[in-house]
Design goal:
The chain contains 13 helices and no strands. Helix 4 crosses helix 5, helix 5 runs antiparallel to helix 6 and helix 5 packs antiparallel against helix 7. It is globular. The protein starts with a helix and ends with a helix. The relative contact order is 0.14. The protein has one domain. Helices cover about 80% and strands about 0% of the residues. The chain has about 325 residues and is mainly alpha-helical.
């Protein structure tokens, strides 16, 4: 098996280098979702939802239930749609292009998007079901081990062991099920068991590939932020502006509509959307690379005309 974590982590960057036009389209789609989320945050529905979440000693009544149905339910529906839109509409578009199903990005609400929606819900359900007994076992283990750890002076290590084990358990579940997404797009079926079988014995290589992909993306993000900050400092110096003027230009403190959608905030939203598009491509590229390398149904390469000519000449 020739699966390489390093190659998997670089697959998305190679795609960005070779196919910048689809990446730009996906960045635009993520920017639209970002703007929609910003509009939702300014709506009375979101403000009412925040007030309800911060409320204490709620007195339930029919008026409160009616208020929730009229305001909180639409707010929760919009928030859920915006959350899943990037995963269930943009992600299938990326997978279709990377798997060669379409030549360019397509955004639609079709069968692929429906499969992706149910896949994410199923993964959340699996994580929840497995997290409850695992959390109970982990909690009991920590309770039993705490006196021993305090006796030998390892209490600080034990306090870190719980979150670390929880993180590894969550990573193990997500990575074992990660190939379900390309399977849903490529084979037109929901088959989490197939992903579980394909990733058997390669967890650490998959984990390493995804960690490296996230590290490269983080380095790109840091480099971009530093470059962005350097340009802002140089601009401030050339124009003779006060030191905090650029910050107020990009991140206005007022809550007005123009201050959220002015030139400065829009520049920052475009920057965020570009980084998010890179992250999507890098993660999806690593998953597609793993799917191609680990799939038991990989199609044999179709010989070219030159290969056939050489074969006939040899005969």
């Amino acid at each position: 098996m020739s699966f390489s974590p390093v190659q998997a982590s670089l697959e998305g960057f190679r795609f960005i280098r070779d196919r910048p036009r689809p990446v730009t389209v996906w960045m635009g789609a993520l920017l639209v979702l970002n703007l929609a989320a910003a509009l939702f945050n300014l709506s009375p529905w979101r403000q009412r939802l925040d007030e309800f979440q911060k409320a204490h000693d709620i007195q339930w009544s029919w008026d409160l239930l009616r208020d929730m149905a009229l305001q909180l339910l639409p707010a929760a529906t919009i928030a859920l749609f915006l959350t899943f839109a990037s995963l269930c509409i943009v992600a299938p578009s990326i997978f279709r292009v990377m798997l060669g199903k379409t030549r360019g990005p397509e955004f639609r609400i079709g069968v692929d998007e429906g499969r992706m929606f149910w896949l994410f819900l199923a993964m959340l359900l699996v994580i929840t079901v497995l997290a409850i007994p695992s959390g109970i076992v982990l909690g009991l283990t920590l309770i039993v081990a705490r006196p021993v750890a305090e006796a030998v002076g390892l209490s600080s290590f034990l306090s870190l062991a719980g979150p670390l084990v929880s993180f590894l358990l969550l990573s193990w579940i997500v990575i074992r099920l990660s190939l379900s997404a390309p399977i849903a797009i490529d084979q037109k079926r929901l088959d989490m068991l197939a992903s579980w079988k394909m990733t058997r014995g390669v967890f650490w290589r998959l984990f390493g590939g995804l960690v490296l992909a996230l590290v490269w993306t983080l380095l790109v993000a840091l480099g971009s932020v530093l470059t962005f900050s350097l340009i802002a400092v140089v601009t401030t110096f050339i124009l003779g502006m006060p030191p905090g003027e650029i910050t107020r230009f990009l991140f206005p403190t007022d809550q007005g509509l123009l201050n959220h959608f002015g030139v400065g905030p829009m520049l920052w939203r475009i920057f965020e959307s570009a980084l998010l598009a890179i992250l999507f491509c890098v993660v999806c590229g690593a998953v597609v690379y793993a799917y191609r390398e680990l799939s038991p149904h990989r199609e044999a390469a179709i010989p070219s005309d030159d290969d056939l000519t050489e074969h006939e000449a040899a005969i």
